[in-house]
């Protein structure tokens, strides 16, 4: 066979996760000024945020910003329309008390943008629907999401045959009512290869909690957030880091893909019947870092929730089963962190159920579910 039946999509999760280990309760002050690289003049109202978290702020009219953050290592994004975005690695251990001065270089491409046309051709709208499906996802949460400013999107299905490429001229704003967030997503790249269903996307999300929710709606949102977290890649990586995958509902097995001699270019899956522990997938180096390290593939079954009806398809007559995924390392070893993130955003190839859940099911890395009774 060419691929397991359970695998509907293959995706590299190119989400630039912030590199934070154990988040402590102590708060640190990150402050600075944003200015123009060429003129030295301040850039007012630039957006400053910690990627994949709820920590973000806008600079004031004098280009100054002030952000209180937990201890840790982060990727900071500084963004302003008309300028190239700046990515800055920040460790609270090395914070400068006097603050920072960030210089943004003007973006000729954005400054020369022509007026956006109100009327789009039918192909643009078809491409937009494809982008929504493969970027936001087709889960209940993904289907509920809405782009608030889709006119910033550039949808290109002409430059490469069979390829849809999407970029954005400004931060893409996404409303996720089910999870109670608005995402400000700095889209770096999106590619969808139509022939083989391969999807790749990379970007920097900021999660902005909806502060207008009633108590009843907030309780519902909290339940939906916990449901989205359970069985997710974030949940899996956290449980591997903590060494309690079985207690968290994950069953792990080694999966071997053996070339099929009768069908060149294809393979046969061989699944080991014996479960493995999280400890068999990780190693600690001399610096005390926790490294994910394994060969071949790891078959992941999450037993605490069934597949969603959207995953099977509403017209399907198949009985819903456990959520089944596959992970594969794209490198020899990969550092992972207690919050569920990892050092290289391109380090893990994910297939199956976890890959099917897209941006519409994402949660910020500072999210913590209620303690389990287990």
Structure description:
InterPro entries: CarboxyPept-like_regulatory (IPR008969). Residues 1-26 form the signal peptide. This is CarboxypepD_reg-like domain-containing protein. This protein is an alpha+beta fold and 374 residues long. The protein folds into three domains: 27-111, Carboxypeptidase-like, regulatory domain (Immunoglobulin-like, Sandwich), CATH 2.60.40.1120; 122-209; 233-356, no CATH class. Helix content is 15%, strand content 36%. The protein has seven helices and 22 strands. It has helices spanning 108-111, 122-136, 140-144, 215-229, 233-242, 309-312, 353-356; strands spanning 10-15, 27-36, 47-50, 56-58, 64-70, 73-79, 86-91, 100-104, 146-147, 153-156, 163-168, 172-176, 181-193, 198-209, 250-259, 267-271, 282-284, 290-292, 297-306, 322-329, 334-335, 348-352. The strands form four sheets. Strands 1, 9, 10, 11, 12, 13, 14, 15, 16, 19, 20 and 22 form a twelve-stranded mixed sheet that branches. A four-stranded antiparallel sheet has the order 4-3-6-7, with no helix packed on it. Strand 15 (250-259) and strand 16 form a beta hairpin. The chain is globular, with a radius of gyration of 22 Å. The two termini are 39 Å apart.
